[in-house]
Design goal:
With 422 residues, the protein is α/β, with parallel strands linked by helices. It contains 16 helices and twelve strands. The longest helix has 26 residues, at 94-119.
Length: 422
């Protein structure tokens, strides 16, 4: 099964050994970019494999991944101490296998580029070497991280480096990606994702943002300047996906839908881990809030949601179509956050409907916040009845009915709707 996954990933030269002894013989005859090692093999043989890979010059830079059942985490941890770079749990997940093997091979390529630059010695211009190294490392660590940490290159980054900044955190992912991916082979999945990302990523950079990380089909981006940068990028990204779907339709593929959520606040950019293995990351409640807001796009059936903090950062010149959806408490959160939908890219009839019913929707929302759910429900029902695709109006109409039927909402009601799903 693993061999099939790796070959689907385009790795045609895959060789297997049935036990550590056969693997040792293979390592003595040839060099390998990566070794995937079953830690359930004989412990002595596993240790000998680690020693051999590190001792033989041609295989010193071989990436070692270990595989074990999920319950054998202690064996995996021991192998990581011996020098394993990553691990795969069984049963195998094709998407995860590809992602982790590809990441190990890319890191190996970066290490080799660093060694090659160093081998050029003092004869190579220092500025050129630095530029080439920075270009290579920026494929894995955003240049902006180095700039905010005030480091010239990845070589200068130290564990614990960090800086506090106010930024907009931007999340987007593909709707129903799991169902979509089940219809594709692992190779087709990655071709699809790379095709999609190549269409949308430039929009983030053009609007003064940078991508912090990819999380499967999701993108987390940061916008360090004005709130309008992130919102403009979101609107343009939606339009680009619409154009992308035209091509998918011509090729006979189903269209894709995305959800986008964002929040603005203080966050820490820095490095975590240990001296021998660290990574850049962002730590902040703003990240969690932005992620939860993106999740609420499914609840409200509104593809683009932003927090009140983002809206507060806009100026009168920023003419986006926004509708206030009230205060919500995301699951697991105690504080509420104001959210707004941006409907610039909705069909023209839906835009006209939301513009026309804005006063009634605002009145219904005010009644909801006061706890007068019968009145709010009637008003939301009137708004929803005028257009079948007004997701937020339909949500609040049904929410008011549930609250009234359950007899809840009195007493300590603070006007913030508590979400039951992430």
């Amino acid at each position: 099964m693993l061999e099939g996954f790796l070959r689907d990933d385009g790795l045609t030269d895959v060789r297997f050994a049935v036990d550590p002894q056969e693997a040792l013989r293979m390592l003595a005859l040839d060099e390998y970019a990566a070794v995937v090692l079953d830690v359930m093999q004989d412990r002595t043989g596993v240790m000998q494999l680690f020693d051999t890979i590190r001792a033989r010059r041609g295989n010193r830079d071989t990436s070692i991944l270990v595989t074990a059942p999920a319950e054998e985490i202690r064996r995996v941890m021991q192998c990581i101490k011996w020098g394993a770079e990553d691990f795969l749990t069984r049963p195998f997940n094709a998407t995860l296998v590809k992602a982790r093997v590809d990441a190990c091979l890319e890191r190996r390529a970066l290490r080799q580029e660093v060694l090659r630059l160093g081998a050029e010695g003092p004869g190579a211009p220092e500025s050129e070497m630095s530029k080439r190294y920075t270009d290579a490392s920026s494929r894995f660590v955003p240049r902006e991280f180095l700039e905010y940490l005030e480091r010239k290159s990845l070589l200068d980054v130290q564990l614990g480096d960090h800086v506090l900044r106010d930024m907009t955190v931007f999340f987007t992912d593909i709707r129903d990606f799991t169902a979509l991916s089940e219809q594709l082979t692992p190779q087709q999945n990655f071709e699809f994702l790379n095709s999609y990302l190549q269409h949308v990523n430039p929009i983030i950079r053009t609007n003064r943002g940078f991508i912090d990380k990819y999380i499967g089909d999701a993108i987390m981006a940061l916008f360090p300047y004005a709130s309008c940068d992130a919102l403009r990028a979101a609107v343009e990204l939606q339009r680009q996906v619409a154009r992308y779907n035209v091509g998918r339709n011509r090729a006979g593929y189903p269209p894709i839908r995305i959800g986008i959520g964002m929040h603005r606040g203080d966050l820490i950019l820095g490095t975590i881990g240990e001296d021998d293995r660290m990574q850049t990351t962002v730590i902040a409640d703003a990240v969690n809030v932005a992620s939860r807001i993106e999740g609420l796009t499914k609840t409200f059936k509104a593809p683009l949601l932003v927090s009140g903090a983002v809206v507060d950062g806009l100026t009168p010149e920023d003419t986006f179509k926004l509708r206030h959806l009230g205060a919500v408490k995301a699951k697991g959160k105690t504080a509420h956050v104001q959210i707004h939908e941006c409907y610039d890219n909705e069909p023209m009839d839906l835009i006209d409907h939301k513009d026309r019913t804005a006063p009634m929707f605002a009145s219904a929302l005010a009644e909801f916040h006061r706890g007068t759910f019968l009145t709010a429900g009637r008003l939301f029902s009137r708004v929803a009845a005028q257009h079948a695709d007004d997701g937020p109006a339909a949500y609040y109409r049904d929410r008011c009915s549930i609250i009234v039927m359950r007899g809840t909402g009195g007493g300590a009601w603070d006007g913030a709707d508590a979400m039951e799903s992430k």
